[in-house]
Amino acid sequence: DAMVIQNPRYQVTQFGKPVTLSCSQTLNHNVMYWYQQKSSQAPKLLFHYYDKDFNNEADTPDNFQSRRPNTSFCFLDIRSPGLGDAAMYLCATQGDSNEKLFFGSGTQLSVL
Amino acid sequence: DQQVKQNSPSLSVQEGRISILNCDYTNSMFDYFLWYKKYPAEGPTFLISISSIKDKNEDGRFTVFLNKSAKHLSLHIVPSQPGDSAVYFCAASAGNYGQNFVFGPGTRLSVLP
């Protein structure tokens, strides 16, 4: 089945130790999004790609970077994780003719 | 400032009864609304949507109502089933593009057997 896959499901890192989260999709969608969701809060958009065009939200910290080497893959790099970065990170895709977002299962990040 | 509000953090309903989840928004430019359902340790899954040109959209047990003048929408689930227990997110956008989607904080629905 076509889907959005996030790895790993759970990630534990140490304070200040770089970490990379990955997302892949078989939907061949042009647009990919990264959201951060903390407990009992709304998902917050960090950035998105339209094809290779990168769009950063104004309030996304510089600590967060992203790469999209091809249509299928997108990575979220957190250069120096802080305790406040512990959250669920959700990847989503959207096609040109689709209105809805397709989400992956998310990666739950813990920072020790 | 929250543009999309879900004022009930949680809701409990008896199996077989109606569940009504509410969502309010402040931006009059929003013209497209979606509901997502999220189980623990899983990503949100799309449930139902409605465009501002309609005031009702129905899909099986799920119906979304939109009241543009009140800037209010609601999701009705009839009859409620235990498998409906999840967190429900309301999202709104001005246009269909995901970068414009604004999510509410969610309502946790518990359907009791």
Task: Please tell me about this protein's structure.
The complex is a heterodimer of chains A (about 110) and B (about 110). Chain A is mainly β. Helices cover about 0% and strands about 50% of the residues of chain A. Chain A contains no helices and eleven strands. In chain A, strand 7 (about 65) and strand 8 (about 75-80) form a beta hairpin. The radius of gyration of chain A is 13 Å and the shape is globular. The N and C termini of chain A lie far apart (about 35 Å). The model of chain A has no long low-confidence stretch (mean pLDDT about 90). Chain B is mainly β. In chain B, strands 2, 4, 5, 9, 10 and 11 form a six-stranded mixed β-sheet that branches. The mean pLDDT of chain B is about 95.
Question: What profile does the largest beta sheet of chain A have?
Answer: 7 strands, mixed
The pair of chains with the biggest contact is: A-B, 25 and 24 residues
Structural class of chain A: mainly beta
Average pLDDT, all residues of chain A: 92
- Total helical segments of chain A: 0
**How big is the Rg of chain A?**
13 Å
Instruction: Provide mean pLDDT of chain B, rounded.
Output: 93
Query: How are helices and strands ordered from N to C of chain A?
Result: EEEEEEEEEEE
What characterizes the major β-sheet of chain B? 6 strands, mixed
